[in-house]
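Supplementary Methods. Inverse-folding protocol.

Structures were first reduced to a discrete structure-token string of length 59. This string, shown here, constituted the complete conditioning input.
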């Protein structure tokens, strides 16, 4: 099923997500939980993401 979601604030989740954009911000380290860290980038100008690999198990 191919579905395009264009609402502001919509979230997509997956094991692997591929993003494309004309402008990409610098990588920022963020805190997830306790001592675990993650990275965040912001995609701007004609940004698009797709799920390349779905979750095996729903958490």
């Amino acid at each position: 099923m191919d579905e395009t979601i264009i609402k502001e604030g919509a979230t997509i989740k997956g094991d692997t997500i591929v993003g494309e954009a004309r402008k990409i911000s610098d990588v920022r380290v963020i805190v997830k939980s306790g001592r675990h860290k993650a990275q965040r980038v912001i995609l701007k100008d004609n940004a698009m993401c797709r799920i390349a690999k779905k979750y095996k198990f729903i958490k």
